[in-house]
Amino acid sequence: MTAVTEAAPAAAPAPAHRSPQVLRWLGAYTASTLGDSVFYLALSWAAVSGGTPAQAGLVMAVAAVPRALLMLFGGVIADRLGPRRVVIASDTVRCLVTLGLAASLFLASPGLWALAAVALVFGVVDALFLPAVGALPPRVADRDQLARVQGMRGLAHRMGAVVGAPLGGLAIAVGGTATAFGVAGLLFALSLPLLAALRLRPLPREEEAREGTAPRGLADGLRYLRGHPVLGPLMIVVLLSDLGFVGPLNVGLAVLSEQRGWGASGIGWVLAGFGVGAGGASLLLTVKGHVPRTGLVMGWTMVIGAVSIGALAQLPRLAPAVLVALTVGLLAGLSGALCNALIQTECDPAYLGRVSAVAGLGSLGIAPLSFPLTGAAIGVWGPGPVFVVSAAVCALAGVYGLAVRAVRRAELPK
């Protein structure tokens, strides 16, 4: 009699929150995000301390220009060279420049020109880093885990915003801006061994992105987006929602708080409510990992969230405003995370850096251009009508997503 030995079934891949690869990526991303928060707080403090408010504003704005101009080509570079290589190079440059600035501040007072030069370098590096970091998840996680990874990324981003500012403030209080820049540099350095330890899985058709010139690669990426039934409309959804959401949150909320008599602590509570809601949305996606009828849920959360944005400006008391802000954060955080997860799962990996660059350009390049317009409109009509218009733009983003059949029926893999 011949014994027959059955092969043991292959072990199922670890879920994202237990995967060493994903946890290394998440640790590196968290360290880098914390470093960013500490760096920009230290930069703004050093600029205000060394010049006029107008000069400080100019220093802070310097980083935005190369980020907006170069981000699309940053996506091409991420696809061509590989996202891990680009992220490691980006964090290495940020580490060295930040530590160099910290050393200069310990020894002398380099002046606003040095701060502006460092901000310019960071803007260029961000244009490379942001598309590359968006292209990494499919290389470290299975396709059915990408929604969970986006939830984990959202939690890390919120942690960077919540923990980074107090950490930077503590560093400034203890040792001045030089110490704060030193802390930021060390956080960037912490990401490097984690990134170096990543073992990326090969993805199909990656070699195609390395052929031809950079302009041709960018044109190919835009052509791919235009012809994709889901991703093309999703870019319009992202742009509309960013245009409607970013301006009021960054400009209108401060004016609203002042007019309502909530004061600085009031705006802090409203932002905290928003942060808690957005963090809750990320935690939900991290735990659940799959949302049935993804496109439909994304569209309706945008529409309902838009109603909450409009209601926020109509509330005279702080406590209800905080609760509404929590609702806005929950709905906007969920719709944003679902949108990012759909981009990850729908996109051909060969184009993911370029697609991530187009998606990021809306919130980091185009939407900030609405700040002056938002401020002028608030000066003429007040925050209430401006919030209503912004809510209408956000609602339009959700309605458009629901109206496009391919987006409405888009589904995350189980």
What is the structure about, briefly put?
80% of the residues lie in helices and 0% in strands. By secondary structure, it is mainly alpha-helical.
Q: Any overview of this molecule?
A:
The structure is a single chain. By secondary structure, this protein is mostly helical. It contains 16 helices and no strands. The protein has helices spanning 20-50, 53-62, 64-81, 83-107, 112-135, 137-140, 146-196, 214-227, 231-260, 263-288, 294-312, 318-346, 352-366, 370-381, 383-403, 405-408. The chain is globular and about 60 Å long.
Outline the fold blueprint.
Layout: H1 20-50, H2 53-62, H3 64-81, H4 83-107, H5 112-135, H6 137-140, H7 146-196, H8 214-227, H9 231-260, H10 263-288, H11 294-312, H12 318-346, H13 352-366, H14 370-381, H15 383-403, H16 405-408
Helix pairs in contact: 1-2, 1-5, 1-7, 2-5, 3-4, 3-5, 3-8, 3-13, 4-5, 4-7, 5-13, 7-10, 7-12, 8-9, 9-10, 9-12, 9-13, 9-14, 9-15, 10-12, 11-12, 11-15, 14-15
Keywords:
single chain; 414 residues; mainly alpha; disordered N terminus
How much beta, percentage-wise?
under 5%
Oligomer: single chain
Overall number of strands: 0
What is the structural class? Answer: mainly alpha
Mean pLDDT: 84
Order of helices and strands: HHHHHHHHHHHHHHHH
Shape descriptor: globular
- Unreliable parts: 1-11
Count of DSSP H/I helices: 16
Query: Cα distance, first to last residue?
Result: 43 Å
Instruction: Tell me about the largest β-sheet.
Output: none
What is the helical fraction, as a range of percent?
over 70%
Structural Rg: 22 Å
